[in-house]
Records
---
Amino acid sequence: MTGATTVPLARVGGVAVTLEEAVAAAADVLVSARLPLVYGLVETTVEAQRLAVEIADLTGGAVDTAASAGHEASLLAFQRMGLLTATLGEVRARADLVVFWGIDPDAREPGFQHRYLARTADSPERVHIAVDIGDARGPDEADERLAIPAAAEFEALWALRAMVRGGRRVDEERLESLGLSLDLLQPLAWRLVSCRYGVILHDADPPPERRDPLRALALGALVEDANERARVRLIGIRMPGNPVGAEAVLTWQTGYPCAVHFGRGYPRYGPGEYTGPALLGRGGADAVLLVGADPGRHLTAAERERLGEIPSIVIGPAAERAEGARVAVVTAPLGEAPGSVYRMDGVPLNRRREAAQLTDAAVLADVAAAVRARVQGGGA
Amino acid sequence: MTGRLRIAGGRVYDPRNGVDGAVADVCIEDGRIVASLPDDAPVLDARGLIVMPGGVDIHCHIAGPKVNLARRLEPERHRADPVPRRVVGSHSDAHVLRSGTGGVVPSTFATGYRYAGLGYTSAFEAAVPALAARQAHQELNDTPVIDKAFFLLLGNDDFLLSLLARREPELVRHYMACMLGAARAYAVKVVNPGGVAAWKAGAAVSGLDEAVPGYDGVTPRRIVEAIAGAVDELGLPHPMHIHCNNLGVPGNAATTLETMRAVDGRRAHFTHIQFHAYGSTEDGRPTSRARELVEYVDAHPNLSVDVGQVMFGPATAMTADARVGHLLHRLTGRKWVDLDVELESGCGIVPFEYTEKSYVHALQWAVGLEFFLLARDPWRVVLSTDHPNGGSFLSYPRLIRLLMDRAFRDEQIRRVNPRALEGTALADGLDREYTLNEIAIITRAGPARLLGLEHKGHLGPGADADITIYAPAEDAEAMFSTPRYVFKSGELVVEDGELRREVYGVTLEVRPEYDADIERVLRRHFEERGTIGLEDYRVDEAEVDHLARVETRRR
């Protein structure tokens, strides 16, 4: 709420206006753009996400989440081969083996281990193994750990697959040339097939320097192989906020989880092509509605700059600082807004609280209605 | 008030009210059917047309996490079937319909539009775990036109199984009522009782009297007895909706019959019975045992089934019976999603295709048709494809033609793997052809009655004015694919198969009474065993866009 007393809630062209005026200006921008991009969606509620996708649909624009560039590899692996997974309650209740594959979940979501991995009276004896991939380390307090050079990650996964399947030769010389060895990997392979219920946690929203289109596929394949001999699940650790809600809403409304383009009047899916960064970077989008994202944290410097070059509408706490925005509406942060948020394992929750401030959902409902009125105004 | 209309002079098929093709007027006022209207009420000339209640789908998968995971899994099928944004109406009345994608698992808006386009006005999502009730409601909120509801999974529920293990079956009723209310669900679904709990623990349960690991003395039989009994005691409008153990396994008809006997006079609806009706040859190939099951169901009026017909072409296996996903994945090598869900159930998803030449697929196709063609009481053997497991709901018109048109059916029979037909009743040359009245029973009146919907599936005064009007045609598939008119709650929504207006139907719920003491026990249970609390399970009234309660009748 800092600054709410000094910064007007709604601005158009930097000038304080009523909410109605801001909504009308936003609708005008969106309707007159050739390709408006609705972008962000990760730090807002399902109620707001529903409306954001509707606005993109009605205006023939594009919509994408600020998670998609990092999460794309996991989504494409899912679409190629499926996924063996579980909700976190199952992990807590059943897992006797947890492998942290280059991730310390507490660094992403404080309290994660306490909530989902605490050893309770009911839970089985459990071994925690940290696999450090270069600088991407597992939790310090793991029972066991092994280190894999970042450049050898894929080879390590492939060798683990071979060991888990059994009867396949592993090229030891090649492993050693990469700084790996059978002795290093063999104990982990053995654990993966001799556990009762094993879980591999990995980073499903890796930072740009850790993005590898093959990692999610290799992890998925390893889990499928191990699952033939034990019960093994793969769980992606997600960025904070509500990216899972955004992907769920996009999927039920359009059939696709990210990077959707409505320019032809129906949803087209273009991972890598219709993503927010691509449409901003190539200059495809000629207007932006940013909601559920903070330019400072979710956009690159180039994207922020682009935001100043085309008409932009910023809705969210970040609107306080969005000087270059054509329309800015300050709303409650996700942590203070009532509404539905999906946990990283897909469990839908309802954050019941009084709305002390305007919410994204309330503003988007007005924008969607104004857009609808403009689009429908001309008749059939 | 608005909404008066006389649908005049059509041939009316309203089996519940004993009307079999008589020429009559159907009068609408304020969204309901009324006995009569003043002479100056607007008239729709339906002379020469066929008038039926709107279709009711008793078992389909259209909302919730497994449906949405399946949507996400199949971009290639969506790409091939875009659903463009459209404007309906004109000038001040113009309205933009939402775009979407089709395929076997359509997006939510496309699901609503396409059901309506087929003349279906109600659909029941058949399997939602309490943990995901909120998501199911959110998706149903975005599913236009049709009325909808979901069934709550309870047959592998950790708390319910512990109550049985602790020999406290009397608490089962209170627990079920509490969770139905919390989830705002409509009925109780049992999937592979005890078998999914066992599967998640790395074990198997295949017989009715095998122990479920982790729950002392609990067997599928005890789960079935307790839940069927509690559903009857609560007086839920729909009986226990059960998917038996051993789905798809050769020889599973024995389990199915045993389960029917275990129900023992209580009410139960056995879903997608086709998948549970197999014998086995010595070398383990499935055969048909449809005849015995049809006879058993015919002789026991407390039982009903929907068929779960397999249709050749694309399908997606999606089931809370996650074991089945694993089997299909191993069989086909296709991509596979397997999800374990906290405290109840899981799900398995495998996209695939039924082919005429496959022995197993052809057998499944034949077994489904045997149920339809041998059933003596169509009120209790109703139509489903277990969408999208046996095929998309869009294949219903073709299925209807298979039932109504023997020549068409025979032509199809000649194309399927002939070995699969040996020993089925189809090989005997079944010549039955369904009448329009029987079609109205298995797609409307029957499902509505089985679901306990007083106001649906018929055209008597007081019924919801959900009405489908067809132009008669030789080709029943063409006729049922493209209704001339569809009315939802008295509003004209479809003309010539095209959506003309967008309305939103209601979501049905039951809220049976229970002893609130159970909540105290439950709060502790969720605290100890779960990662979310009872209040997190509760879906608020405000979270469901158009909620409508159906009363229960305590016995």
---
Amino acid sequence: MSENNIPLNEEKNNQEKGNHKTISHGRRDALKAMATLPIVGAMAYGVYSKRKKEMSNLTSANMFHFKSDNASITPLSSDGKTVRLGIIGSGIRGKQLMIALGFGTPQYVEGLKEAQTNNPGNSRLKDFREQEDLHVVITGVCDIFDVHAEEAIAAAANIHREGVNGKYGAQPKRYLNYRDLLAAEDVDAVVIASPDHWHGQMAIDAVNAGKHVYLEKPMSWTVPETYALREAVKQSGVIFQLGHQNRQVEAYGRAREIVEKGLLGPITLIETGTNRNDPNGAWVYPIHPDASPNSIDWKQFEGDPDRIREYMDYMTSAGLAQYVGPEPRDKFSLERFFRWRCWWDYSTGLSGDLLTHEYDAMNQILGLGIPSSATSSGGVYFFKDGRTVPDVLQTAFEYSDKGFTMLYSATLGSQFSRSRKIMGHDATMEVGNTLTVTIDPRSEQYSEKIENGTIKPGEPFYHYMPGKSIDAVTSATELYFAERGLLYSYVDGKRYNTTYLHLREWLECIRTGKQPSCGIDEGFQEAITAHMGTRAYLEGRTMYWDAEKEEITRG
Amino acid sequence: MKRNVNNNYSNIQLFWLVSLRVLIGWYFLYEGLAKVFSPKWTAYGYLMDSQGLFAPLFRMIAENPNLMATADFINIWGLTIIGLLLILGLFEKAGYIGAASLLTLYYLSHPPLLNVEYILRPEGSYLWVDKNLIMLAATILLFCFPTAARIGLDRIIYKKNKSK
């Protein structure tokens, strides 16, 4: 049959032939008009069948059903009084904390402007400028290196978040000794970001001076000061927040719910770690060209005499003299000043710097508390630059009462990405900014669903992405974006920095008298856990926790 | 329109032209329906991953919640409706124009340029020419060789117009 010129022929036919034929042509017309309609039917059937299959997989939405979809940001009191802050320590971390508080140097703002000019997609300038005002004023700063102190003064005065030649506010007072800052009447609260060996002492002094404290992690350098700080905070009415900003990671709350609901089954092993592979990540920080004995107060850097005595007592009594020094403490050293994390004389090593973040994440999710024992190994394997602190560390923490082990494994000589995993009999959860739950093929809880094909074991079964609240399996791509933080601009329509949220929570607790999320009890657990790991490494033997006496023992 | 209706296609030509129209329609319709049935589906990630000359424009859309919502709506329902129009042969030309517009945007946001890497990796290997560009060419081709007045609901519309 030829289709050529059909419409014209058809019309001619209609005129020539009778009624009967017209009906037949009308039908043929209709057939041709609707010839492709069955294809829509085929699509409908295909979509229906596919949906039916997918819906049976959506049991994850039923099984993983939760109370809250989004953690909410701490609301600011409408009539919130201005908190007058003192900054103790304005080096790398201190400056980051000031930026999170809304105070950057004019040079910092210029840098953001330049980044925006080079890449219009870079929104950091906008984010910084539009970050909600926390109602704070910085009235005092203390740093023992002149350059850092001057930068902190410039940042604190930059109240309108402007670049160079902008309009600035009043400059805060610079204190040469932190104790003078603590005695100042125009300081309500302090942010402490000093080297580790000063953390405990400065916090104790601040609490005793009645100042609220935001203390960078780890909480303490020596074991005895850990107890002293806890005692001081408990005796006082100050609001104490330890700087584990990942308390603010939204996904951890959901992870905790998953564990509490027993969706992972009995948990036996938790794996965490740190992988870094560059000098900066290994604490080889740049040495400032203006640094000299004239611009640095070395005497104050050395540390508090009582704390040094505690450190030396332990190192000597445990036979660890090889880890002390090697240079004398009173000898000025630019390397030791800027790269203090590399020496036990000031540092808490991988345990204090990075294990504490991993531990605190897991402590939030699993309510770990202090482990029953810790065993460590490692060494200085890659950065053989004279440091005493190892760059490779493995610590196994036993929680004999809970029936699981938490493994911390770190190297500063490889950046291979390893996810944190909580391994259960029924499922394993990977925890980052997002969550992924994979059902175990040998799970008993899910055996029926595995058999009837509802669950495919070994494949990611549940993903949680904060801000998107998708309670089902979603694509690997979306997960990829979320892990890189690309999706966070949608959390309440804004991108947030966790340090900002953590400081904000602390400031609101000061105003309302509530307890912040990483208070002294969480801090005590963090510090003791880190000390157990460190001592196990230094002494080369297992450390135990006597929960009744609250003491680290050698078993 | 009139001229096109009188195109003299052989049976085999008509069969393959209609097949191509229906296949492209099917592709659009299912892409649309898959999004209709994915709650909270968004093109945010796709737009943020844009590269090339127009990337800033696409990222700007992604970062503006109102524009983003509009882009999502146009994608979800545009794909679905265009797919239906092409399969059914209804308002054929409008369908091709819609399809060609979307394909142009997809191509411009993810051009397979030299030295460009996408986080959303394409499933094949492309240099300058990708499947979007080929489908775009096919859509324009179909626009020049319409078929719906012969096989499709446009036949009824055409008939009505004709009989007036």
